[in-house]
Amino acid sequence: MRGIRGLAVVAAAGLLAAGSTVAQQPLRIGFVYVSPVGDAGWTYQHDLARRDLEKALGGKVTTKYVENVPEGADAERVIRELAATGHQLVFTTSFGYMNPTIKVAKAFPKVNFEHATGYKRDKNVGTYNARFYEGRYLTGIVAGRMTKSNVAGYVAAFPIPEVLQGINAFTRGMRSVNPKAEVRVIWVNSWYDPGREREAAMTLISQGADVVTQHTDSTAPVQAAQEKGVYAIGYHSDMSKYGPKAHLTASTHIWSGHYQKVAQDVLAGKYQPSNVWGGIKDGMVKLAPFNPAVPKDVQDQVAKAEADIVAGKLHPFGGPVKDQAGKERVPAGKNMPDDQLAVMDYYVEGVVGQLPKK
Amino acid sequence: MTDLLVAIIVATLAAGTPLVFAALGELVAEKSGVLNLGVEGMMLVGAIAAFAATAASGSAWAGVLAGMGAGAAMALVFAVLALTLQANQVAAGLALSIFGVGLSAFAGKPYESVALQAPQTFLLPVLSDIPVLGPMLFSHQPLVYVSWAVFGLVAWFLYRTRQGLVLRAVGEAPASATAIGYPVIAIRYAATLFGGAMAGVGGAFLSVVYTPMWVENMTAGRGWIALALVVFATWRPARVLVGAYLFGGVTITQFFAQGAGTAIPSQLLSSLPYLATILVLVLISRNPNTIRLNAPVSLGKSYHPDG
């Protein structure tokens, strides 16, 4: 009896499914990655979300990714090929894919595109990005509580607004619990060069930093911290495997929610391109599990700040925000608006050294 | 102040070591008249071979040997193409570099998530107890001392032994060397394989000792810098050593300057190692006679004993 009813339910569901979707084929989704997937880092996080998407939507979608695609002419060729081979949704996951994405999108008006971290949109091109600085602020609190020397070291790639938001939010988080703290920055002028990242981290450690964090792609700074017996805070991914003693936590990117929402919208035929800039509240930024070395009260303090950010009671750039020169950038009682965040080109109070002038 | 100086020198010597290995190896190959542009590829293949061997055996020395072997194997491919089959050396070398990048990435896939422990530094007994100089010069990773030994051997071999003289003769005038009865191709094979082995050790130093991990393209252009060092050092081992440490030293010093908070643009600071190294080497080697005397005349030219 039971078995028969079960069968009937399955049959009914099948009929329903057949009725509601025009195409019987699963939705084909393409991903373009700027580097190899690897085991940690920017692209790895996108690929995690891709695998989650396949699991969550089961037979309704199939995905394909192309990794290690240089930003430029090659990118256009790859994106065009994905669009031409029946992919109805293409995620292009690096800033430098912006112009190729827009160009290909014009040629394939029926295909939808989602471009990460860009600012150009079109009828079938949406953009998405995460408020990485919220996670940075929280890791700054961890650093501020765990440091003994009151100096944190920051290995940074290029002085663009996104990186400066991270440095400044980290510094503000750190000083919110430890007003004496200072942050030293070394620019390696590369997103990815393990040797130089290590050299920069080692230099910062020998200049007194006992917490090292990074805005670069390799795990070298975490390994350097592990070797020298100081703390590290990872970025992009949980890097604890590379420094079991050193790695306190990491600010990580979670794209799963966004990818599933977009895929479902496209499946339902109601996709509208938009500009998504999600933070902790939207589940796009998340801290990696804490190292056992982080005491309970520090973890609680971070959890409290996290809840306040989600509730909108705390903004990493809530006024007063003063830059290094003492100039007030945001008055007390106000939060920094998004358009000001997007063009940040200064250090806040507490960062040592001058940012090179343009 | 001395602490800072010691920290800078120690970091400099470590940063320069992969360049010392790769550039000395290339110098020997070029002295025999073989221009192998595949250093970057040989370093990468050496790096992944060393990493895999260390991960499997737990011994960094096994890794170094594997890196050496893999670098030499890559050089053998080049030697067959360029020396036996008489292919254009520039084209074959470039192909080797590109091939090495791809091969190492492919072979390295399973090792991306593996983490290794960095080997301990080795304090030379007695010497490391000397104040200041001890921690500065005699408390390094063992491979740093090995690179000094390789430097000594290369310099001694090239300029103080009969075999070294023969090798240089082969690089100057292969036809004359053949006429006197020397096996030009065999000597060039040996020099090329030595160059590959040393590039492999340079790569092994990076993946096993310096940043104990494997990541695609982890040499980040150091092979090309080693090639440039050889030319700017006018094929003299001592100048190669100076150039490699100068490059490492300026890299490290500019990081210290940044960490201390100077107002010089970091982009300019990042370019300093390249500028300073080229400038200094060009200045010390500016005498046209030294260049003419030291540049191997038949460098990069195919040669076959039968004409």
How do you describe this structure in short?
Chain A is of the alpha/beta class.
Tally of domains of chain B: 1
Q: What is the overall pLDDT average of chain B?
A: 90
Q: If helices are DSSP runs of H or I spanning 4 or more residues, what is the number of helices of chain B?
A: 13
How many helix segments of chain A? 11
Overall mean pLDDT score of chain A? Answer: 89
Order of helices and strands of chain B: HHHHEHEHHHHHHHH
Helix/strand-derived class of chain A? alpha/beta
SSE blueprint and pairings:
The complex is a heterodimer of chains A (358) and B (307).
Chain A lengths: L1 H19 L6 E6 L9 H16 L3 E6 L6 H12 L4 E4 L5 H10 L4 E5 L8 E6 L1 H15 L4 E6 L4 H17 L4 E6 L6 H13 L4 E5 L4 H9 L2 E6 L10 E7 L2 H12 L7 E4 L6 E3 L8 H16 L9 E2 L5 E3 L7 H4 L9 E2 L6
Chain B lengths: L1 H30 L7 H19 L2 H25 L4 H20 L13 E2 L9 H5 L1 E2 L1 H19 L1 H11 L1 H7 L3 H27 L11 H11 L4 H24 L5 H19 L3 H7 L13
Description:
The complex is a heterodimer of chains A (358) and B (307). With 358 residues, chain A is an alpha/beta fold. Chain A has helices at residues 2-20, 42-57, 73-84, 98-107, 132-146, 161-177, 194-206, 220-228, 256-267, 296-311, 338-341; strands at residues 27-32, 61-66, 89-92, 112-116, 125-130, 151-156, 182-187, 211-215, 231-236, 247-253, 275-278, 285-287, 321-322, 328-330, 351-352. Chain A has two domains: 23-130, Response regulator (Rossmann fold, 3-Layer(aba) Sandwich); 132-252 and 285-352, Response regulator (Rossmann fold). Chain A contains eleven helices and 15 strands. In chain A, the strands form three sheets. A seven-stranded mixed sheet of chain A has the order 12-10-9-8-6-7-15, with helices on both faces. In chain A, strands 2-1-3-4-5-11 form a six-stranded parallel sheet, with helices on both faces. Chain A is globular, with a radius of gyration of 22 Å. Chain B is an all-alpha fold and 307 residues long. Chain B has helices spanning 2-31, 39-57, 60-84, 89-108, 133-137, 142-160, 162-172, 174-180, 184-210, 222-232, 237-260, 266-284, 288-294; strands at 122-123, 139-140. In chain B, strands 1-2 form a two-stranded antiparallel ribbon. In chain B, helix 1 (2-31) runs antiparallel to helix 9 (184-210). Chain B is globular, with a radius of gyration of 19 Å. The mean pLDDT of chain B is 90. The interface between A and B is large, with 41 and 36 residues.
